[in-house]
Amino acid sequence: MLEAPEKLRAQVRMQRLMQMQDMSLIRPILQKAGLRPTRQRLILGQFQLSLKKI
Fold first, then answer.
1. In Å, how far are 16, 25, 31, 34, 53 from 43, measured between CA atoms?
2. Could you read off the pLDDT of 6-53 as tens digits, one per residue?
3. How far apart are CA 29 and CA 34, in angstroms?
4. Which residue from 23, 19, 47 is spatially nearest to 37, judged by alpha carbons?
């Protein structure tokens, strides 16, 4: 059984990995569309990806 802080750390690490994967999916899409991957657009892209996953 993991201690609470360890468990939390593992969850945070997983979330970061998921975000990084999403970013790497979004960037090429934005670049193809001729858009610079600004922070706002990346967040919008993440939102759209999360909608597709549901």
1. 14, 12, 15, 17, 15
2. 888 888 887 887 777 777 777 777 677 766 656 677 777 777 777 776
3. 9
4. 23
7 vs 45: CA distance, rounded Å: 29
Residue 40, SS3 per DSSP: helix
Instruction: Let me know: does 45 contact 38? Beta carbons within 8 Å.
Output: no
How far is residue 48's CA from residue 51's CA, in Å, rounded to a whole number?
A: 5
Are 29 and 48 spatial neighbours (Cβ–Cβ below 8 Å)? no
Reading the block at residue 52, the tokens are 């597709």
Kindly report the pTM of this predicted structure.
0.35
